[in-house]
Design goal:
97 residues; 0% strand
């Protein structure tokens, strides 16, 4: 997850409207997650991050330590929640067979 944070921070210099994430940021966040997570988990994580944090929030995380900590905590929390959802879906699918 540290790599995901680094990738997000690197893309903070991209220009975009206040609430919209640039396509590159979305892709980098997803790619960073895929290094340690699965497809469904990472799709879930990126969607939750986009819902919770605007692009301005992400830029703020680059410059303000407290905002960076909040983002790191959100990434960890959402990652675990998404992993749990993914696990529940897989378990349910197995029980249906």
């Amino acid at each position: 997850m540290t790599r995901l944070i680094i990738l997000i921070v690197l893309l903070m210099s991209c220009s975009a409207q206040a609430g919209d994430w640039p396509v590159g940021l979305v892709q980098k966040a997803y790619d960073g997650c895929m290094k340690s997570g699965g497809k469904m988990q990472c799709e879930c994580l990126v969607a939750r991050l986009q819902y919770k944090f605007t692009f301005d929030d992400m830029r703020l995380a680059m410059n303000k330590p407290i905002a960076k900590i909040a983002l790191q905590q959100a990434i960890e929390t959402y990652s675990m929640k998404c992993l749990e959802e993914d696990f529940k879906k897989e378990t349910h699918m197995l029980s249906q067979q």
